[in-house]
C-alpha cells in the first residue's frame, strides 16, 4: 500500500479501501470528504489523569469515522452528520485558541481519515511555537504506513485496542481484520514513541497509552486484549482499562449491547491485569458509564 495510502482521491487512507473521490466532495466509508470537518473543540476533563490534568485536554473532535462501531457513544458525529467544514489554517488557529484557554495538550479525536491535512496543520503549529504535546486519539483501524506521516509530529498516542476476537470485530464493527490492523498500527505508534515521559506535574509529555473498552458479555475478548498488550509491550506502554461502555446502540439485533458492563467482570479483568504484572495502567470508576460524559457536538470552538 505504500505510496497510495496518502491519497484522498481515490481514497486509500484506511483499511476500508473505499476508493471514494473525496477531493471532489464524494464521501468515503468514513462519511466525509477530504475537507476537514469538526464537531467540537474545547477543554475536556475526562481523559486519563496524565492527559486531562487540572486544566483539561484541548480536544478537537473530527466528524466521520472509518470504523463505525454499532455501539459508538459519539454516534452523532461518527457518520459525519454534524460538524463544520474548515481549512488547515483555521485548524491551526483552533489549536492556539485551546492553548490560550489553558489546555495541557492538543488532543485529536478520531483524526485518522484526515491524516495528510492533520499532519500539515500540526507541522505549522509546531513551527509557529505552540509548545504543547499533540495527542492522537484513535480507534487504531488504520494502516501503519499512514501513521508514518505523523512520525515526529505526534507526542502521545492514545489508541484503542478494541478486539482480539475477529468474530466480535465483524459483528460490532464490520471489520474482521481489526485485530491484525490494530496490532500493526499500535506497533508503529510504539516505535515512534517507545518511552513514556512526564513533566513535574505528572502530565505525560510523550509516550503511548492503549485503551481497552470492556463490552457487555465479552470478558474473554478483554482478557485476551490485556494479555496481548502486556506480553508484547510490558510496561513500556500504559494500559487504560475502561468500564465506561454506555448503552446507546439502537439496533434491536444486539440485545446484549442494551446492558452495561457487569461490575464483577470488570473487577475480574482488573485483577487479571494485576496478576499478569501490569503496573503502568489506569482503571475507571462505575460512574464513567453515563451519557453525561458524552460532550455536546455543537461546533463549540470551531
Topology:
Layout: E1 37-44, H1 49-52, E2 57-62, H2 75-78, E3 84-85, H3 88-100, E4 106-109, H4 115-127, E5 134-138, H5 144-147, E6 156-159, H6 166-173, H7 178-192, E7 197-198, E8 204-213, H8 219-233, E9 238-242, H9 263-276, E10 281-282
Parallel strand pairs: 2-4, 4-5, 5-6, 6-8, 8-9, 9-10
Antiparallel strand pairs: 1-2, 1-3, 7-8
Account of the protein in words:
The protein contains nine helices and ten strands. The chain has helices at 49-52, 75-78, 88-100, 115-127, 144-147, 166-173, 178-192, 219-233, 263-276; strands at residues 37-44, 57-62, 84-85, 106-109, 134-138, 156-159, 197-198, 204-213, 238-242, 281-282. Strands 1, 2, 3, 4, 5, 6, 7, 8, 9 and 10 form a ten-stranded mixed sheet that branches. The protein is globular and about 50 Å long. The relative contact order is 0.14. The model has no long low-confidence stretch (mean pLDDT 93).
Relevant terms:
302 residues; alpha/beta; 10-stranded mixed β-sheet; 10 strands; globular
Q: What is the number of beta strands?
A: 10
- Percentage of β-strand residues: 15-25%
- SS-derived structural category: alpha/beta
Return residue spans where pLDDT drops below 50 for at least 5 consecutive residues: none
Q: Overall pLDDT, averaged? A: 93
What is the H/E order? EHEHEHEHEHEHHEEHEHE
Helical content (DSSP H or I, runs of 4+): 25-40%
What does the main sheet amount to? 10 strands, mixed
Radius of gyration: 18 Å
The number of helical elements comes to 9
For the record, give the distance between the C-alpha atoms at the N and C termini, rounded to a whole number: 34 Å
Q: What is the global morphology?
A: globular
Amino acid at each position: 500500500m505504500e505510496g497510495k495510502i496518502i491519497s484522498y482521491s481515490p481514497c486509500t487512507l484506511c483499511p476500508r479501501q473505499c476508493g471514494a473521490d473525496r477531493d471532489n466532495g464524494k464521501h468515503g466509508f468514513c462519511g466525509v470528504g477530504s475537507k476537514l470537518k469538526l464537531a467540537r473543540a474545547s477543554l475536556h476533563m475526562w481523559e486519563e489523569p496524565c492527559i486531562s490534568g487540572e486544566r483539561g485536554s484541548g480536544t478537537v473532535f473530527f466528524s466521520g469515522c472509518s470504523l463505525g462501531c454499532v455501539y459508538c457513544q459519539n454516534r452523532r458525529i461518527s457518520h459525519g452528520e454534524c460538524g463544520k467544514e474548515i481549512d488547515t489554517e483555521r485548524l491551526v488557529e483552533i489549536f492556539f485558541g485551546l492553548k490560550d484557554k489553558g489546555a495541557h495538550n492538543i488532543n485529536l479525536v478520531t483524526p485518522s481519515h484526515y491524516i495528510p491535512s492533520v499532519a500539515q496543520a500540526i507541522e505549522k503549529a509546531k513551527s509557529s511555537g505552540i509548545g504543547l504535546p499533540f495527542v492522537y486519539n484513535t480507534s487504531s483501524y488504520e494502516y501503519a504506513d499512514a501513521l508514518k506521516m505523523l512520525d515526529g509530529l505526534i507526542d502521545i498516542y492514545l489508541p484503542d485496542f478494541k478486539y482480539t476476537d475477529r468474530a466480535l470485530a465483524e459483528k460490532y464493527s464490520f471489520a474482521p481484520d481489526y485485530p491484525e490492523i490494530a496490532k500493526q498500527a499500535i506497533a508503529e505508534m510504539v516505535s515512534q514513541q517507545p518511552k513514556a515521559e512526564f513533566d513535574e506535574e505528572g502530565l505525560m509529555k510523550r509516550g503511548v497509552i492503549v485503551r481497552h473498552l470492556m463490552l457487555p458479555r465479552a470478558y474473554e475478548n478483554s482478557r485476551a486484549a490485556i494479555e496481548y498488550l502486556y506480553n508484547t509491550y510490558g510496561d513500556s506502554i500504559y494500559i487504560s482499562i475502561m468500564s465506561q461502555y454506555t448503552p446507546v446502540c439502537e439496533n434491536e439485533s444486539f440485545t446484549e449491547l442494551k446492558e452495561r458492563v457487569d461490575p464483577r467482570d470488570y473487577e475480574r479483568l482488573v485483577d487479571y491485569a494485576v496478576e499478569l504484572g501490569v503496573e503502568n495502567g489506569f482503571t475507571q470508576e462505575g460512574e464513567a458509564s453515563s451519557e453525561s460524559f458524552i460532550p455536546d457536538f455543537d461546533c463549540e470552538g470551531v
